[in-house]
C-alpha cells in the first residue's frame, strides 16, 4: 500500500489519534502547568548516552535555519503561490514551465545555503557513534540535501531530492546537478510577485536522456505515494530504534507525522526540538523549545561516558 503526503491512510492500523489522546491524558502535556513540556537536557543526555540505535526525524524547520525558504505559512510565497499550489501532478500537467521555474529557483538558491549547527551536530554525532558500534540514521522530509552536505551518511530522504529528475514517459531516474538544469531556465524563476512567467515551450524544458521525454523533479508531490522501499526502510529503522529525535517538523504531513507517535507508543523515548508545539508534542517525553541550532548540538554532544576517539 502506498502512503500519500496528505492522508494518514495507515492510521486505520495503528490508531494514531488514540495514541495522541492517550499520551495527552496520561499527563505528558499538562495543560494546567505554565510550562507544558519536559525540557530536562541533563535527563535526556543520560538516555542519549545509553542509546544504541538513534533515529532523527527532520523537517523544513531545520533547513529554514539555514535560510532555505519553506514556501508555507504567512509570507511563504514564491510569486503568488505556496508549495502546495505547485508541488502537485495536476500543476505540472497544467503548466510544466511554471513548475520547473519554481524548482529551478529552489535548486539554484541551494548553492548559497550551508548546513547549520543542527545539521553539523547530527553528522558529527553519526560519525562519532559509528566508532562505538552505535547507529544514527536521519529520516528527512527535506529535499535540499543539506544533511548530505553536512556529512550525514545514513539518510533516508522520504520526499526525494531537488537534484534528481524522472522522465514522465519511461520513468528513467537520474541525478542532475547542472546549473541551470537546461538553457531555457537560465536566469528564470525569480520569486518576486511581479515576475512574469517564462512560458517556456515544453520541448525546451528538461528532457530525459534516455527517451527524450519530458522530465520532472524526482520528488514526492502532494497527493502522490511514497516509494515502497523508502517506507519499508523507514519503518524498519523506527521499529529498531531505542531513541528518537524529532527536529524542525510540524508533524502534520503524512506519513512522516506518524513515526514519532508510533515510536513513542512502543515505550521508546522521543524528544522534540521545535520552536512551536506540534500535534506530536503530547507523545514526546521531552520538548526543547527553540531553534534546532541552539538545542541539538547540546543534545548530541559527546557524553562524558563516551570513550576517547
Write the layout of secondary structure elements.
Blueprint: H1 11-14, H2 16-25, H3 41-50, E1 53-58, H4 60-64, H5 83-86, H6 89-94, H7 96-109, H8 117-130, E2 135-140, H9 146-150, E3 155-157, E4 160-167, E5 173-175, E6 215-219, H10 228-240, E7 243-247, H11 256-265, E8 270-274, E9 286-289, H12 292-300
Structural summary, described in words:
With 309 residues, this protein is α/β, with parallel strands linked by helices. The chain has helices at 11-14, 16-25, 41-50, 60-64, 83-86, 89-94, 96-109, 117-130, 146-150, 228-240, 256-265, 292-300, and strands at 53-58, 135-140, 155-157, 160-167, 173-175, 215-219, 243-247, 270-274, 286-289. It has a 6-stranded parallel β-sheet, sandwiched between helices. A 3-stranded antiparallel β-sheet has the order 5-4-6, covered by helices on one side. The chain is elongated. 41% of the residues are buried.
